[in-house]
Amino acid sequence: MSSLSRELVFLILQFLDEEKFKESVHKLEQESGFFFNMKYFEEKAQAGEWDEVEKYLSGFTKVDDNRYSMKIFFEIRKQKYLEALDRHDRATAVEILIKDLKVFSTFNEELYKEITQLLTLENFRENEQLSKYGDTKSARSIMLIELKKLIEANPLFREKLVFPTLKASRLRTLINQSLNWQHQLCKNPRPNPDIKTLFTDHTCAPPNGARASPVPVPLAAAPKAAGTYTPLGAHGPFPPQAASNASALAGWMANAAASSSVQSAVVTASSIPVPLNQAYVDGDIDLALRGHNDFDENYDLTLMVPSWIFIFSMSSIWDSEVTYPAALPQVTWSLDDLPRVVACSLTQGSNVTSMDFHPSHHTLLLVGSANGEITLWEIGLREKLVSKQFRVWEMAACSPQFQSAIVKDSSISITRVIWSPDGNLIGIAFTKHLIHLHGYQAPNDLRQVIEIDAHVGGVNDIAFSHPSKQLCVVTCGDDKLIKVWDLNGQRLFVFEGHEAPIYSICPHHKENIQRQYTGFRKKSTVVVQFDTAQNHFLAAGEDNLIKFWDVDNINMLTSTEADGGLPSRPRLRFNKEGNLLAVTTVDNGFKILANADGLRILRSFGSRSLEPFRAQHEASPIKVSCSPVVANISPNISTVDRLDRNSPAKPSIILSGGDPTPRIVDNKPKISEELQDKMKSWELAEILNAKQCRVASMPDTDSASKVARLLYTNSGVGLLALGSNAIQRLWKWSRNEQNPSGKATASVVPQHWQPNSGLLMTNDASDTNSEEAVPCIALSKNDSYVMSACGGKISLFNMMTFKVMTTFMSPPPASTFLAFHPQDNNIIAIGMEDSTIHIYNVRVDEVKTKLKGHQKRISGLAFSNNLGILVSSGADAQLCIWNTETWEKKKSLAIQLPAGKTPVSDTRVQFNSDQSRLLVVHETQLAIYDASNTERIHQWVPQDALSAPISYASYSCNSQLVYASFCDGNIGVFDADNLRLRCRIAPSTYMTPAAASSNPPVYPLVIAVHPQEPNQFAVGLTDGAVKVFEPLESEGKWGAPVPVDNGVHGSRAQASSTTSNSAVDQHQR
């Protein structure tokens, strides 16, 4: 059923309720399945009308739909059974047992037997579990509390528990509006028409008094003057352009005023969503809160496109598991959360027309300019990573219209730049015909993918979308068309129907997410630019200001002029985290505004230079003005085209614009005076005591158990540890004066959190030697449940109640590693002790397939959604790459071990944030591989001060650092780009002298990294302790990177054990 048909049902439900057709209301609720009336359900359950309760429920779910539904029906039938027993009605109880409860015996035979045994008791309260059963009324109330939780958690009831907010008599209002409209179409409209029927269209009688037969008037037959009244579309009834018959429209609006919600000649949010990221300003402003767009003209802004192109259903997540989602915490926000501090001002060199932050690398900014140039900026370094001037890639493939237009006027500007959702593609729309797609590989590699002659005239917007899991490109333009393309440049769909150029498109998941905001100039005809941050804050550019709103409040929060220099309507863009805001300036540049979190991220970059990659043809240094709040970041900016990641001694010969002509480049190593100064001043940061960094010790740890696995919650407010004793502990930070962000921090000690019941999350560990068991753990994306095992069955725990929701996969073999599929949380890859990998479907409780390729237990699993692969690692020092569509093995390779070393210890794998690199960790080495071809790029082996075996290692959340722990208690912080050591944290920093010299030794067994703070990590120790580390606030980062110039390192760098094993690297390449 279409969305509008569904809404019509709600209108009918409202009408029936207002007319007091109560039975019809609930019958329609049940038959349509659109709205579950919890109040009616509770009334029937409290009255004990069990047949009506189940009948009503059957309109929304069946017993065997999922485990939520099964438990709902079980609780109802159990209550009915217990009430029969309480009345001593044995015959009815037996009937309920056989007809209603028997179905559950196939799922839990022991429970069914126990229920059956209640028949033998004179009073079922003699059963210990039912000893607190009160009277019937209180028992029903308790049952309803449980049922309400189950219904709210059941995915089949999503979006069915809240009736939409409608004005009174909405259906009557719409009919009245329709009649008013029909009256305006009459050839001879009478002042006070007498409406006698709704079965046919209204027409006024001819003026001579003759009665005409009522004939339905098709919309297509309407006169041209009323051409703006189009048929009901996907998003609303009318486009917002003025009718040609202005007086008729005015009359219609006047007649409708008494009962209509329409308030102006422009149809508002009640009838059609305003295109995203733009709005006509008329005192107040209607905005749809999704997506980004850049455009600059006043045209027809209607989105009358079939809804399928914009609405894609979200796959169900864990709809087969009974968990109770916690009530959302009441998060408090303050103005300090707004990025309002000017961190830096950067000069682009041409008017900036569009910007977009990378979806996962939150300081990587893509900028499009009026001269057709695209530039990638690393905001943390204030550096241009790559710039490309516009050029036509293949003129012969372009249309004659474009060739003629470019000959007449060679100037071309960018209208829109955008990242694909995975950050692997860049889309660029131009003011003449074309779009370009570039492939991106970190840190600065742009490659041409395809050029499409997409529209006649300008291409005004471009977006990426995923219909049927196929990445597509959607464009719109001056030719009044919307087109959908695949990545090979094939046109899939064309949508027509607009009467003016289209300036905005946005694939989205929900319709009509709208709100009206105040704070704009009155009666302005301009189009303003806006963006949202994490669906909480909205920013818009107007009057040389940036104006901010809370999206849940129509009144403006505040505004800032960002130290001046903004155009009248600045373009702006938040990064995904909402802690950085880019805004254009009048001097052909842009500013970066930040909040406290954003400033910390910028400081964490240090002063890494791109000097070695500057070619002889570089332009003049770019002017940068810097705010003192991020003074630790180097202000050196240069124009750089393409940086060769693997061979820094060979600068690219491709100039901006892609000129392939070879040029003579001096490749002799040169060390600039600036670099020499840096090398003289550079020192390996060595932290030897607790005063040199921030360390927090978690309370209530278990000294008798090793910390085997450690995870931050995805929200960044909690830390979860799994001990070798199979018990999990959770620590949570709370929002208070000491910790206003509420996020995990080493400055504040958190609380050891437990539910009121006092339950512990304890894994099944029967018949298992705790020393031999290999603990494994995985956390759901929304932090509502955790899956773990410790030698026994895998258990699914509710994170709010600590209850075991289900167990599965009984050993042998025991599970040794768990990983969720990135696209479907119902699919789990389970590494096993017997070296196999089980692809397990939780929803149907079955193993989909078994992967065989290792010789020893599985110790690591990592999915790459971008590459469509699963990488597995084992205690056999082998890596296997599996295709996630077919689950066939694509490749296997052995990591290089030192001579004489046998593969007995665990090997772990982890993709970086953009999935272009793979970190491989073994006790003998750290190694980084190219994810696309599994060739090793860098390797580091324990040496000098860090000579002990490696116990664990992990990328930081932004993949710019690698944290590694060692079996002697040392911790190393490495640059992820080259595996060069930048900081060593000695055991004396966080251990007592007794612990540091104990036998057996105490050392970190596992590392966890904070999901948002790249300089925060935690370690779990062999003595059960858990520590959280952060650099001092005055430092902001862990040491500094080793200076590099054309591949030549200073002598101090070479002597400090910071170099990766270059000989091995060269051999591997």
Please give a handful of descriptors for the protein shown.
5-stranded antiparallel sheet, disordered C terminus, 16% helix, 1069 residues, alpha+beta, Methylamine Dehydrogenase, Chain H
The total strand number stands at 53
- CATH top level class name of the domain at 341-506 and 528-605: Mainly Beta
From the coordinates shown, what is the CATH architecture of the domain at 341-506 and 528-605? 7 Propeller
Oligomeric status: single chain
The shape is globular
Helix proportion of residues, in percent?
10-25%
Any overview of this molecule?
- This protein is an alpha+beta fold and 1069 residues long.
- Among the domains are: 36-153, no CATH class; 170-197, no CATH class; 341-506 and 528-605, Methylamine Dehydrogenase, Chain H (7 Propeller).
- The protein is built from 16 helices and 53 strands.
- The strands form 13 sheets. A five-stranded antiparallel sheet has the order 20-21-22-2-23. A five-stranded mixed sheet has the order 24-50-49-48-47, with no helix packed on it. Strands 26, 27, 28, 29 and 30 form a five-stranded antiparallel sheet that branches.
- A hairpin with a 3-residue loop joins strand 36 and strand 37.
- Helix 1 (3-18) packs antiparallel against helix 2, helix 5 packs antiparallel against helix 8 (136-153) and helix 9 (170-184) packs antiparallel against helix 10.
- The longest helix has 20 residues, at 67-86.
- The protein is globular, with a radius of gyration of 33 Å.
- The model is unreliable at 209-331, 509-513, 522-526, 607-672 and 1045-1069 (pLDDT under 50).
- It holds the Pfam family WD40.
- Residues 1053-1069 have a biased composition (Polar residues).
- Keywords: Repeat, WD repeat.
